[in-house]
Specification:
heterodimer, A: about 400 residues, Translation Initiation Factor IF3, Ribonucleotide Reductase, subunit A, 4-stranded mixed beta sheet, about 60% helix, elongated, B: about 290 residues, alpha/beta, D-Maltodextrin-Binding Protein, domain 2, 2 domains, 5-stranded mixed beta sheet, 10 helices, about 40% helix
């Protein structure tokens, strides 16, 4: 006995096809369903719909018989077993589909450069993203921009020079993940999300640094060729793993030390607060790089030699440059000194030497955690750019 | 590879290029040498069918009626190939606003009826025939004549008529039954605010029309047979061809038939559109 459906007074101009489709889904091709209805000329409408859908149609008095035509199920394929299980390689045909969706065979192929899990992913990516979401901050609320300048113009000049340097570093930290983002297969959506929020973090940092530079009427300070050359090597790196190592593990990790220094010695509360909040964000970026590389090196220990070679190559390419902007170095000393008296400068100078040592120790610690030997870690850390990032 | 089977098609929309490029690729993959020529009107395409430029024409029903008449008059008959499943048993519907005091076609006396393109079989010629048979005579006619020569394929006239209906500019208008649903889905017609007050007899739509020489030359006959076989072999289940079928609006190709053009042929005579030799005699037809 055929299935019967009564569409009552619902016309095909108002969605009757949905009820018919639901009913047809329960029968096999070639089988009939019976339709009853009261809408004016519903049979004419049903016949037109059947013709466009490839189903047979027959009027029988005030009813109609629809014979199911082609089976549409074969056009769908499930290429991912679930929404949560990651594929080792995401095929181009999955395209932009939600992970776990049934994707139609013959969908266009998207060439995403990063389509291999081990090349891009980390197992705690979802957790890192949630942490990032929860830690977002609004500069308009988190920072009190209303305090007047109570420190000397000399200290303000040092703050402005340091932040000028930090803006260009943050520009690199924004552009590098942004370039990777568009090349990540959307199947790895946690990585996509993580990179996106990292980019948003950097955009916010660039904004607050610029706002702070202008807070007391100043314009940005100096930008040096050596500093930009160092950052350019980061932008030139096309391998995700190497980039994470150079930018996040070594660069942003070192930057966290710098921010902690600034938090301690900045002359105004706005800069101190900025340094605190930015350091938290950067620590998450470092954590992502560390997680990704730890997993990658576990499955491919030989990858260490690739990272080692990349550090050496970067050092060689920067050998002819000046390294850290002297104005930046001096600004750090002045900030730690708090004034231009010889005693204060001597104290400031010591603090900056301590900062460099802290940076070195931090790099050694992170690199050793990634399984490099002491000797390797020492070499890597010593070859790291003098520009900090 | 020599292009030995040339099809004519009318460029009623930019997608026509995409469609036939896709088919060309499909034929190429099956070692069938195929090319296509695009025309801006069915009238020019039919003339090319008889003067040896193309082997076959992807013809509208009205173009089939004309080709069949020309072939008969010249004693060089055309033949036909397959048609789409969606070309069979169409009807046109006359749609009015739901709250209008129009229940049957008899209520259309002195009312304004919207038609599609002047040369549209589905939205003008067959509907006029239907009204004539029903004895409705004193209505006002408003023709939404766009893109003459394309026999209403672009459905632009039908859509303009539907828009005019919703804006109270006409009292009723004609469209293909499937466009009634399409216009309801896309909001051209407000869902539930219209009603069908008449439906024409069923008719067929597009059909491949083979040039006279294809009918008489055995070598060309076998080429056209191969063309037909390859079309019939296209399966919806094959993802490689499905997008072509979707673009062309069918689920499967079916063997052609011509009885579904009888109603249109009567309409053509009645409205003096073509004469029995296929000459265009309608003075107001612009293409």
């Amino acid at each position: 006995m055929s299935q019967i459906i009564d569409i009552e007074d619902l016309g095909f101009d108002s969605g009757a096809h949905i009820l018919v489709k639901q009913c047809l889904a329960s029968v096999a091709p070639g089988q009939d369903i019976e339709i009853r209805g009261q809408a004016a000329e519903w049979q004419t409408q049903a016949a037109a719909w059947c013709r466009t859908q490839g189903h047979g149609f027959k009027r029988v008095d005030d009813r109609a018989l629809i014979s199911k035509g082609i089976e549409d199920k074969q056009r769908w394929i499930t290429t991912s077993t679930s929404a949560t299980e990651l594929l080792d390689v995401a095929s181009p045909g999955l395209g932009l589909a939600a992970r776990g969706a049934c994707v139609e065979i013959g969908s266009p192929e998207f060439k995403f450069r990063f389509d291999r899990r081990d090349e891009i992913s980390t197992s705690n990516a979802a957790e890192l993203y949630q942490n990032a979401i929860n830690a977002q901050w609004n500069p308009n609320i988190a920072i009190d921009w209303s305090q007047p300048q109570e420190h000397s113009d000399t200290l303000e000049t040092a703050v402005v020079q340091l932040l000028t340097y930090m803006v260009e570093n943050e520009n690199a930290a924004l552009i590098v993940p942004a370039r990777f983002l568009g090349q990540v297969h959307p199947h790895f959506r946690e990585i996509q999300a993580l990179l996106s929020i990292q980019i948003a973090d950097e955009a916010r940092h660039i904004d607050v640094f610029n706002r702070r530079i202008a807070l007391f009427g100043r314009t940005p300070g100096l930008s040096t060729a050596g500093g930009q050359s160092s950052l350019k090597t980061l932008l030139d790196e096309s391998q995700f793993g190497i980039s994470e190592f150079l930018l996040s593990v070594l660069g942003e990790g070192t930057f966290v030390n710098l921010l902690q220094f600034l938090r301690r010695f900045a002359p105004d509360q706005a800069t101190r607060k900025i340094a605190l909040l930015v350091a938290k964000d950067e620590s998450r970026h470092v954590a992502f790089g560390m997680s990704h590389l730890a997993e990658r090196l576990e499955s491919d220990p030989d990858y260490r030699s690739t990272l080692m070679a990349a550090v050496r190559a970067r050092y060689d390419s920067l050998a002819a440059t000046a390294g850290l902007n002297e104005e930046v170095f001096d600004s750090l000393v002045i900030l730690a000194a708090g004034s231009l008296s010889p005693d204060s400068i001597a104290t400031g100078f010591k603090e900056v030497q301590k900062l460099l040592k802290d940076m070195e120790e931090g790099r050694l610690y992170r690199v050793q955690r990634l399984g490099f030997s002491n000797a390797e870690a020492t070499e890597i850390s010593s070859l790291h750019t003098r520009n900090f990032m | 590879m020599k292009n030995n089977f040339v099809l004519g098609a009318v460029a009623y929309a930019p997608k026509v290029v995409t469609i036939w490029e896709g088919f060309k690729e499909y034929f190429k993959e099956h070692d069938f040498s195929f090319d296509y020529v695009l025309f801006s009107s069915y009238e020019a395409q039919n003339e090319a069918l008889f003067n040896g430029i193309i082997h076959a024409a992807w013809n509208s029903p009205l173009a089939w009626v004309r080709a069949e008449r020309i072939g008969r008059a010249l004693n060089t008959p055309v033949s036909f190939g397959p048609m789409r499943d969606s070309d069979q048993d169409l009807t046109s519907v006359l749609v009015a606003r739901k709250n209008a005091a129009i229940v049957t076609v008899a209520d259309l006396e002195a009312k304004t009826i919207g038609f599609g393109a002047y040369d549209s079989p589905q939205a003008r010629l067959i509907p006029l025939h239907h009204l004539q048979k029903a004895g409705v005579k004193s209505f006002k006619s408003r023709c939404f004549d766009v893109l003459g020569g394309k026999h209403g394929d672009h459905i632009g006239g039908e859509r303009l008529a539907a828009v005019a209906l919703m804006q109270n500019e006409v009292d009723a208008c004609w469209m293909i039954d499937s466009n009634y649903q399409a216009f309801s889905s896309d909001g051209t017609l407000t869902a539930g605010e219209t009603k069908i007050i008449a439906t024409t007899e069923a008719y067929d739509h597009c059909i491949f029309t083979m040039a006279p020489r294809v009918t008489t030359d055995p070598a060309l006959q076998s080429v056209s047979q191969k063309f037909t076989e390859l079309l019939m072999a296209m399966k919806w289940s094959d993802p490689k061809v499905r997008h072509l079928l979707e673009l062309e609006g069918l689920k499967e190709w079916r063997p052609g038939r011509t009885q579904g053009f009888q109603q249109l042929s009567s309409a053509v005579d009645e409205q003096a559109f073509y004469d029995l030799k296929g000459n265009i005699i309608e003075p107001n037809y612009r293409y």
